[in-house]
Write a structure and sequence with these properties.
WH_DNA-bd_sf, 215 residues, 8 helices, Redox-sensing transcriptional repressor Rex, single chain, Rossmann fold, transcription regulation, Arc Repressor Mutant, subunit A, binds adenosine-5'-triphosphate, alpha/beta, seven-stranded mixed sheet, two-stranded antiparallel sheet, 9 strands, Tscrpt_rep_Rex, elongated
């Protein structure tokens, strides 16, 4: 059965945040959690959380809350079944920030699930996406089974980060830096050079204006 059809997109996008926080609770040995506590931690309101969980047929009991282990194993299954494509974003500068806000809303099954930076916004959640320190890159990429990454760091950092991403198992890189990064066979790089694109357009307009306008 395809459960994705029944889960609203906004709910699906909150799932990794729930999942992450519940993993954290499980690691800390916490067995149950109320929607109010979850609301406090995730900054989603408790009613939203209860509604989200009800889509999953979950699982809360009055005066008891939710069983952390049960929720976790359920979410792991849902995340898998829905085959959501989780993408990592490296570098939360101007461009990275814009992409976080954009977050591929037209697509129901692709989204930025984790972002990384050396200093900006670390430890925060921006546009529903947790921002991790670069020291957590490999661990998070493996844990969230991410195999696609978007690179919006300064070009000096691009190759080193690419190497780390590849080692962590990333198979596709959308490279917004001007550097042409090297990758081993089996890894695909998609280069997106916005400045270059705009310059090309300007060049055509200046040199071929009469052709393109047909005058
Ligand atoms: P943009 O190029 O997206 O407009 P910007 O001008 O705000 O960004 P940049 O200097 O290009 O800033 O850096 C982009 C982001 O990458 C910043 O948030 C910066 O902290 C981060 N960054 C820089 N070096 C690294 C690194 N080695 N690893 C991870 N993030 C980095």
């Amino acid at each position: 059965m395809n459960e994705q059809a029944q889960i609203p997109r906004a709910t699906a996008k909150r799932l990794p945040i729930y999942y992450r926080y519940l993993t954290f609770l499980e690691d800390a040995g916490t067995n149950r959690i109320s929607s109010a506590e979850l609301a406090e931690a995730t900054k989603f309101d408790a009613a939203t959380i209860r509604r989200d969980f009800s889509y999953f047929g979950a699982l809360g009991k009055r005066g008891y809350g939710y069983d952390v282990k049960a929720l976790l194993s359920f979410f792991a299954k849902v995340l898998d079944q829905n085959s959501l494509i989780n993408v990592a974003l490296i570098g939360v500068g101007n461009l990275g920030h814009a992409l976080l806000n954009f977050n591929f809303h037209q697509s129901s099954n692709m989204r930025i699930a984790a972002a990384f930076d050396i200093n900006e916004h670390r430890g925060k959640i921006l546009s529903g996406v947790p921002i991790y320190d670069m020291s957590e890159l490999e661990e998070q990429i493996k844990a969230q089974r991410i195999n696609i990454a978007i690179l919006t760091v300064p070009q000096e950092a691009a190759q080193d980060i690419t190497d780390r991403l590849v080692k962590a198992g990333v198979k596709g890189i959308m490279n917004f830096t001007p550097l042409r990064v090297s990758v081993p066979k089996g890894v695909r790089v998609q280069n997106v050079d916005l400045t270059n694109e705009l310059q090309t357009l300007v060049y055509f307009i200046q040199n071929y204006a009469s052709i393109t306008t047909g005058k």
